[in-house]
Amino acid sequence: MSRRDRARSRLLCFPYNSPDEITIQQSGGKEALLHLPPERRGWDAGGHFSPFFANRFHYTNHMKLHLRLAIVVVSAALFAVLPSLAVADEGPLDPSQPKGQTSDEIIKRFAAKEAEFKEARDQYTYRQSVIVETVDGDTITGKYQEVFDVLFDDQGKRLENVVFAPESTLENGGISMSPEDLDDIRHRLPFVLTTEEIPEYNILYIGQQQEDELHCYVFDIAPKEIVGKKRYFQGRIWVDDRDFQIVKTSGKTVPDIRKKRGQENLFPKFITWREQIDGKYWFPTYTKADDILHFSLQDVHIREIIKYEDYKRFGSNVKITYDGKEIPKADQGKK
């Protein structure tokens, strides 16, 4: 099996059981209509459920993270958020330095590729599906689900078309969604680290590791500082040693937000896997989270799955490049 095909099978083999979804066995301008549940749920100081005193956690329109641990003090150790979600066919971490090039040279190469990837993905249509569940033991207490297509209108303007969005019951689990949650799901779970963004982060080379058939360089990253209300990623990335693109991300968005009057927005750890779609770019195809959010008054266990499917190159006049060369349209959008 080729590297690409092998990687594709890897991305589809991670375990997750969702009652109304799938069970996967572990192995080796139009405006988008966003459905936001009322942000009015939680427990009050007396331990009683109140619609006005809410624990609010960050989630984005397509909520598919299995929230597992949501407190990260950004001012603490830079790389405190290290991956803890085990995956299949992951080799031991080799701390040896790369051969033939420095870690700084690798960072420069993959950041340039990430810039190309970001521009290319903006010219693709795809379907994104989100499931978020609150869990108490083996019982699912609340659920948010949404499926939407990322498309272009006849003027070439990018838009989102919601195709499935049943009423959310997450409030039964004591949480609700905030605008930050929706924005994170769309823009930060499929994390991109371009040349322009490199100066914002501390990047530490950790070693090399095998991810199925992919040999990867591993880096821990954390924001140098939190500027205003801007949100960042903190965690670990795996960079393929052949294509010099990020193929896996594990960490969380930061900072968590705690305001007066008990308002809290906490964020889960997640893992995002990418798949090579057109033979050149590694696009995100699967995000998973399973975390416990530690609110001041109680813990909330959340699970989330996000899928990005049916990538298709939009037929516009925008050029897509790879290594500085334009990709012929006949070769774009091929899996």
Structure description:
By secondary structure, the protein is mainly beta. The chain has one domain. 11% of the residues lie in helices and 38% in strands. The chain has 3 helices and 19 strands. Strands 4, 5, 6, 7, 9, 10, 11, 12, 15, 16 and 17 form an 11-stranded mixed beta sheet that branches. A two-stranded antiparallel ribbon has the order 1-2. A hairpin with a 4-residue loop joins strand 16 and strand 17. The longest helix is centred in the middle third of the chain and has 19 residues. It is globular, with a radius of gyration of 20 Å.
- Please compute the radius of gyration using only Cα atoms: 20 Å
Q: How much helix, percentage-wise, in residues? A: 10-25%
The arrangement of helices and strands along the chain is HEEEEHEEEEHEEEEEEEEEEE
Computed structural class: mainly beta
Tally of strands: 19
Distance from N terminus to C terminus (CA atoms, Å) equals 15 Å
Q: How is the main sheet built?
A: 11 strands, mixed
Number of alpha- plus pi-helical segments: 3
Low-confidence stretches: 1-88, 317-322
Topology:
Blueprint: H1 3-11, E1 16-17, E2 23-24, E3 57-58, E4 68-69, H2 103-121, E5 124-136, E6 139-152, E7 158-164, E8 177-178, H3 179-187, E9 201-211, E10 214-223, E11 232-240, E12 246-254, E13 257-258, E14 264-265, E15 270-276, E16 282-294, E17 299-313, E18 321-322, E19 325-326
Parallel strand pairs: 3-8, 4-16
Antiparallel strand pairs: 1-2, 5-6, 5-17, 6-7, 9-10, 10-11, 11-12, 12-15, 13-14, 15-16, 16-17, 18-19
